Amino acid sequence: MEELAPTLVWALEKFVPLRSVKEFLVAGDFLYGYGRDAVREYIEREGRGASSRPTLLTKLVVGNKETGAEPLSDEEIVVEVSNLMFAAVDTTGTSATYALYELACNPGWQRRLQQEIRTSGVGKKGFEYRTVSELPVLNAVVTENLRMHPAAPSALPRQTVGPVTVIDGLPLPEGILVSMQAMTTQRDPAYFPDPDKFDPARWLAPGPDGKEQIFPGTPEMQEMMLVWGGKGGPRSCPGRYMATMEMKLLLARLMDRYTVALESEATHDDMVMTDHFALIPKGGRCGLVVSRHDV
Ligand code: HEM
Fold it and tell me: In 66, 99, 160, 222, which residue has its Cα 20 to 30 A from 153's Cα atom?
């Protein structure tokens, strides 16, 4: 944080002596420290020459002689790596936590998911993305959870670049701030009837063989799902596939062997959603009891 905006950090510490602000700043330092260590270790291990591992990180460290792209400085790379962790870790962790909470609140859906995992034989085939990605109930549970608990629930402002931008038939001049928020669009009853209900069936449809299959939603439903910052525009989440993969693998593995239940009624209160740009459960914890079930 301090690396990005030292004056802002100084002003926040001096004039906003709130505990939450201090914690936020400390969390930033921690994450940048972690990013710095990770980049240092990587450079020690791989060196600064062309690596046998052509990763994005190598390109940033080495640059590209053919195109003339200069390498980034170590400090710039630390900021990029740390920003990626900011974007990736809490978003995915919070979403997965809410998914487990919803399964505990909806034991019927939890049983359906366990049954799907069992009958698909994924436990024997091995938990890999290719074995879990097309499971309809798993996909429906993950999508419905993202609908109800988007990790960035509030407005993601954009500025029109003009000279005239037309949005939904409305002409807007250059420099106008426009925004929509996932929390509103994803609970719009016009597209998601009974919007406060956790209902993965919205994302299921009967296939030609009568079996349930993945339903991606109507075009309008897809348009309203802003959980990834839009349907694939240039600034929408580049980590969406990785995050979806992580959540599916986590849920499939857990539901193969375990059942989750609410620890007590207090879990509902702890899991009330609060918006700090990122979604954070009010109590900072999710009290669940995890028990092993018969395979
Ligand atoms: C459930 C998990 C996740 C959710 C809900 C999520 C959501 C979002 C949203 C809404 C944005 C747009 C922010 C904006 O427009 O201002 C975004 C951007 C971004 N996300 Fe994710 N994200 C998740 C996981 C990840 C992961 C795992 C990674 C990386 C591995 C990642 C990397 C990024 C990056 C780099 C951006 C900035 C893109 C840009 O501005 O060009 N995200 N994410």
Answer: 160
